[in-house]
User: Which sequence fits this backbone?
């Protein structure tokens, strides 16, 4: 005998499970080719958690590109991430910008993100892993700690260009970033 009441109960139960609110955090990474290097490994790591991860990168970009990029502000407005990771600075070094210029530009970008509702404590910078960084990691540590994931001390193996990490190094680096985020945000 067909029991309509049980069928309705089962449908409501299934619907309630499907519409449960997410208890995870939305993490958004953006930046240059260094962001590209860790995006896929981080995406894989976050896929095994209740958190969602998305990213946007453009190779060769400097901080000022992102300051004036309306697509970034649209993405932030649409995604409303809980945590924002910024991986920038390497191309600014290549363009011979001073550490002070890079840090000032990053501060402008951080202020803009705060205007979009991202709390300062939820904006984390990922410093460049290159060894010849003109002490940018150290200067960023002074300017942005505790909102910085330093990378130079990892001594990552770089490709022949001495800028980009190898595939193996990307895995190590993304693991380091993931572990730091787990500690910072109790993920």
Assistant:
């Amino acid at each position: 005998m067909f029991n309509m009441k049980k069928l309705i109960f089962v449908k409501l139960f299934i619907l309630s499970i499907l519409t449960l609110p997410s208890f995870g955090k939305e993490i958004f990474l953006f930046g240059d080719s260094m962001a590209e290097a860790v995006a896929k490994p981080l995406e894989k790591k976050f896929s095994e958690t209740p958190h969602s991860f998305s990213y946007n990168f453009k190779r060769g970009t400097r901080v000022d590109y992102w300051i004036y990029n309306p697509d970034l502000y649209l993405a932030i407005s649409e995604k409303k991430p809980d945590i924002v990771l910024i991986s920038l600075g390497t191309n600014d070094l290549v363009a011979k910008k001073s550490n002070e210029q890079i840090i000032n530009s990053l501060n402008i970008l951080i202020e803009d993100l705060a205007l979009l509702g991202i709390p300062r404590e939820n904006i984390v910078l990922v410093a460049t892993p290159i060894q010849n960084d003109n002490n940018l990691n150290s200067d960023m540590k002074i300017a942005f700690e505790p909102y910085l994931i330093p990378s130079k001390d990892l001594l990552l193996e770089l490709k022949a260009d001495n800028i980009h990490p190898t595939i193996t190094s990307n895995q190590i680096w993304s693991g380091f970033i993931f572990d730091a985020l787990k500690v910072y945000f109790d993920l």
Summary: The chain is about 50% helix and 10% strand. The longest helix spans residues 167-185. Residues 15-20 have pLDDT under 50 and may be disordered. Strands lie at 26-31, 52-57, 83-87, 123-126, 148-149.
